[in-house]
Structure prediction request, 138 residues.
Amino acid sequence: MGSDPVWSYHHFKVIAERAAKRRLFRVKNYVELPKKVKVAAFDVAIIPYEEQRARVGEVFGEFSCVENVIRIDMSISPMQICETLVHEIAHSIYWIYSVDDSDEEERIVSVMSTGWMQVYRDNPKILEFISSTIKENT
Ligand SMILES: [Zn+2]
Prediction:
């Protein structure tokens, strides 16, 4: 899986540069997608989603609690990649911090805000990726 260009972390940059040439979005200060995010005691790997698999599922990403992996479709725009990353990290916080579907709103919000603070504190590269992607595309 390492030799296939679709699986390369440079894939995003190549696609972003091509789109920038077509003036779809800017990539002046490109920041590479982090390879992992620490959520509570776990390192959750961030890897590219095979495009075909994402299309079949009609999703841009997924969090697998079994594999402890976040997959992201790298063929979408940087802002969509960024939003998908935030969405999948939220799923990982929900799962790893043991939020239950039957929990009440105040408990869910409390656990999610604590989880997000821990993620921001322990993952400066994630914060840098989010802020630079937003700055470059606003
Ligand atoms: Zn979801």
About this structure: The helical segments are 11-21, 51-57, 78-96, 105-122, 124-136. The chain has a mean pLDDT of 83.
